[in-house]
UniProtKB/TrEMBL annotation:
It comes from Thalassotalea marina. GO terms for molecular function: transmembrane transporter activity. Belongs to the ABC-4 integral membrane protein family. Residues 287-399, 715-826 form the ABC3 transporter permease C-terminal domain. Keywords: Cell membrane, Membrane, Transmembrane, Transmembrane helix. It is a multi-pass membrane protein. The chain crosses the membrane at residues 21-41, 278-305, 333-355, 375-402, 434-460, 710-735, 762-783, 795-816. One of its GO terms (cellular component) is plasma membrane. Residues 20-239, 474-650 form the MacB-like periplasmic core domain. This is FtsX-like permease family protein. InterPro entries: ABC3_permease_C (IPR003838), MacB_PCD (IPR025857), Macrolide_Exporter_MacB (IPR050250). It comes from the Bacteria. It is found in: Cell membrane.
């Protein structure tokens, strides 16, 4: 049987539908954004990675390289040493990631007639054991697969098996071309398994790589399970001790492994390691969402408190008639239960919709390279549902029980005797001031952060990178390691280098002979991509300390690649046959280096060399030309550079390069022509990540831009909540002082003076709220600036525009209700009920 209090609550809510709907929406938006953000952050950052085991998988690697935005691998020799001495790991293993081309013109599978680029994970034999996942057909790797001379073997992901082998189980035991080297398929992993990140195939590391007998140049990433009772913090304390031991015994050739204050082997949650560069941004997002939830709670509390204030006389009369206060509290609590429960249901729908949009956004972000981490698929799990239920209950208590108890503590005799809205007195007015200031602080923080992130992303996407991108198609090229091996420290090393270099030279010529291409550029990284800088020393001008030298981005270039990008040769000559001779090291610099360090125009003929923590390179490079400026890397990245040096590819012969072609006609024909031009030179050369130049430039920013869009939504929500909340609280506070306004007017105070009094009070609230809000916002932005460069214009927009907007909102929220009360006759204001 429905209680009288419940029926009464429903009737009172239906009596004011606008108030009811508005309050439910505020609850739904605040809770919906909270559940959405929790699901996002939990999947991407906070939830430990367990896979099929009950023990968390942790990552072990070196200190993140902020200069190049690289995760740093470690020497397995040192980790094996630490594992044996410390005994803190249950199990540990190694991996490195790369790309492998499977198939080719001799493939028996039609889908593999053209070699397909796969994200390949090279792993230690125990990886599947640590992950507690077995192939669903075939076998896992065995230790015998890791010894020198073992037959190359490969395990396929479920998706690769289904896509390229038509889910044919008879492929087990068949041979497959792996970078033109025959390898045998021994297993297929279960659907959805892509550990360590986005692997499509797995290949074994060599035993000598994972169990070296001494320190070496080998660099691998590690994963582990800690022993029972060992936390990540305890494990790091133990590793800190052995890091000092390693640093003290490390030979000079390997001193580069130790960074900062002896940091080397670092253990951290696996997911955190994978997004180290963006971790601060995600934490900032968590703070923003928490602040929005506070905004929603404050708004709902204020609305319900205002509603209680409006009904204070009714409550006083019911108390006077003998109705127990407990029943009245329950009746008012029921209103909050209805509002928060229905708002919570709507919040679940809002969060589910946001998650669907975000999953699609992530799929688009990683559509070109297929490198979306396997855990980046969001869902509302039981934990999120539990948080929603807990939040609804907490909101009911905060927004319902607290205002109800507060109302019950009033002097009802004075309320009945007076019958005016001024009966709540000083304490209510003080509470209103605190709430208004809180709204200003929270809304300022959220809006400033959202504006800075969004505008920074916008300016980065519109930045001038010094190249022409219209009608430019880009792709990545990879030569076959079987046909063009890297044999270091052998007599064949130089000839191998020239053979690889000749492939790119011939590809450039082949492309430029195509009728729908006007020019081609081949570089190690194209302008707009490729973050990372290195210090260089000018001959005769060495700095006292290596990091006081200037620094630049360094790229490898094939011949005259400038024309395809709209770049210009400003001084000197292009790369030519003179740069191929063994032992000759030439380079070109961009206009900014020439202007800033060779202002007399004498850059050509000067020599520079790279220099680092471990000293200077023995190789001096002679400047042979100066080209127009470009910007490498995103303008949002701290490791990007406007100083660029270009080296001829002939003496380097890289395995991978990027190509950009200027085409006429339509893009689809250009793609086919590009693939044909490469195949005419060597069908074994892989062509992948084919996309427009505009999309290539956007690629490094897509994740940040995606997060910026989330911040934008947070900002819009904060703006709506702040505008409605500030207006409601200001209006309610002024309404509570209706009797006071009537008295002031009755004794002759002019309306202008009364308006000025309220504006002055609002200004005080603004001063306090904006000061606190801006300080907190700047602190959070500074925290995020470790991950990206904030555009200077963004600061101006956010730190001037947002406070201006909030000032306007508060003044309107003060002026309009004050003006409304001033329209009343003083006698009416004195008895306003």
């Amino acid at each position: 049987m429905v209680s009288i209090e419940l029926k009464y609550s429903i009737r009172m809510l239906l009596k004011k539908p606008l108030f009811t709907v508005l309050t439910m929406l505020i609850v739904a938006i605040g809770l919906g954004l909270t559940i959405y953000s929790f699901s996002l952050l939990n999947s991407l950052v906070f939830k430990p990675l367990y896979l099929n085991n009950d023990k968390e998988i942790v990552a072990i690697e070196g200190q993140f390289d902020q200069n190049h935005l690289f995760r740093t691998p470690i020497d397995p020799y040192h980790l094996n040493l630490a594992a044996n001495q410390l005994g803190i790991f249950e199990k540990h293993g190694y991996y490195t990631e790369g790309t492998t081309f499977i198939g080719g013109s001799d493939s028996k599978h039609p889908a593999l007639f053209y070699a397909q680029k796969m994200n390949s994970a090279y792993i230690s034999w125990n990886m599947f054991d640590i992950a507690s996942v077995k192939p669903f057909i075939g076998r896992a790797f065995q230790q015998s697969d890791y010894v020198d001379g073992a037959e190359p073997v490969v395990i396929l992901s479920y998706n690769a098996w289904a896509t390229y082998f038509d889910s044919d189980s008879s492929v087990i035991g068949n041979q497959l071309s792996l970078d033109a080297i025959p390898g045998r398929i021994v297993g297929v992993m279960p659907e959805g398994f892509s550990f360590p990140d986005s692997a499509q195939i797995w290949q074994p590391l060599n035993e000598n790589q994972i169990n070296p007998t001494q320190a070496s140049y080998t660099g691998l990433f590690a994963f582990a399970q800690l022993k029972d009772g060992i936390s990540i913090k305890q494990a790091q304390i133990a590793l800190d001790g052995i890091n000092k031991e390693i640093a003290s015994t490390l030979e000079e050739d390997f001193s580069w492994r130790i960074r900062g204050n002896g940091d080397y082997l670092l253990v951290m949650p696996y997911k955190q390691a994978s997004i180290k560069q963006y971790y601060n941004i995600f934490i900032a997002l968590f703070v923003v969402v928490f602040l929005i939830l506070l905004l929603a709670c404050i708004n709902v509390s204020n609305l319900l408190l205002a509603r209680v204030n409006e009904r204070i006389k009714e409550v006083a009369i019911r108390v006077a008639l003998g109705i127990p206060r407990k029943k009245l509290i329950i009746q008012m609590l029921w209103e909050s239960v209805f509002i928060c429960a229905i708002g919570g249901g709507l919040a679940l729908l809002f969060a589910a919709y946001g998650i669907e949009i975000t999953n699609n956004m992530f799929d688009q972000t990683f559509a070109v390279n297929n490198q979306k981490p396997f855990w980046w698929t969001l869902a509302i799990d039981n934990t999120a549902i539990g948080i929603l239920i807990t939040s609804v209950v907490a909101m009911i208590l905060v927004t319902g029980l607290v205002p109800a108890i507060k109302a019950m503590n009033n002097d009802f005799n004075a309320v009945i005797k007076d019958g005016t809205r001024g009966a709540l007195g000083k304490k209510a007015a003080q509470t209103g001031k605190i709430l208004v200031i809180s709204e200003i602080v929270l809304s300022c923080v959220v809006l400033v952060m959202a504006t800075i992130l969004l505008s920074t992303g916008y300016f980065a996407s519109k930045a001038d990178y010094g190249v022409k991108t219209e009608n430019r198609l880009t792709a990545q090229l990879q030569v076959s390691p079987d046909k063009y091996p890297i044999r270091r420290n052998t007599e064949d090393q130089y000839q191998d280098t020239l053979k690889r270099a000749l492939v790119y030279t011939n590809i450039k010529a082949s492309v430029e002979n195509m009728p729908n291409f006007t020019a081609a550029a081949i570089m190690s990284q194209l302008p707009g991509t490729g973050e990372g800088t290195s210090y260089f020393e000018i001959e005769g001008r060495a700095a006292a300390v290596y990091n006081e030298n200037p620094y630049s981005n360094n790229e490898i270039v094939v011949g005259r690649s400038w024309d395809a990008l709209g770049m210009k040769l400003l001084q000197g000559r292009h790369f030519d046959h003179r740069d191929i001779e063994e032992g000759v090291y030439n380079l070109m610099i961009n206009e900014s280096i020439a202007r800033d360090f060779f202002p007399d125009g004498d850059a050509v003929g000067q020599r520079i060399r790279r220099v680092g923590r471990d000293g200077a390179s023995n190789t001096w490079n002679t400047i042979v030309g100066v080209v127009s400026d470009t910007y490498h890397g995103s303008t949002m990245r701290s490791s990007s550079a406007s100083y660029n040096s270009y080296h001829p590819h002939d003496n380097i012969g890289p395995m991978r390069m990027y190509i950009a072609v200027h085409y006429t006609g339509n893009e689809a024909d250009a793609i086919n022509a590009l693939k044909q031009a490469v195949a005419d030179i060597d069908p074994a050369v892989g062509v992948y990540h084919v996309q427009s130049y505009e999309n290539l430039i956007e690629q490094p920013m897509k994740l940040l831009l995606s997060v910026s869009k989330i911040f934008l939504f947070c900002g819009v929500v904060a703006l709506v909540l702040a505008a409605s909340g500030i207006y409601a609280m200001a209006a309610n506070n002024i309404l509570q002082r209706t009797q006071e306004i009537g008295i002031r007017r009755a004794i002759g105070a002019p309306d202008r003076k009364i308006m000025s009094m309220f504006i002055k009070q609002a200004s005080m609230h603004l001063t306090i709220g904006l000061a606190l809000g801006i300080v907190l916002a700047v602190a959070l932005i500074s925290y995020m600036s470790n991950s990206l460069i904030i555009n200077p214009e963004s600061y101006g927009i956010a730190l001037v525009g947002i406070p201006g907007l909030i000032i306007l909102m508060v003044l309107i929220a003060t002026y309009v209700p004050t003006k409304s009360v001033l329209k009343l006759e003083p006698s009416d204001a004195l008895h306003y009920d």
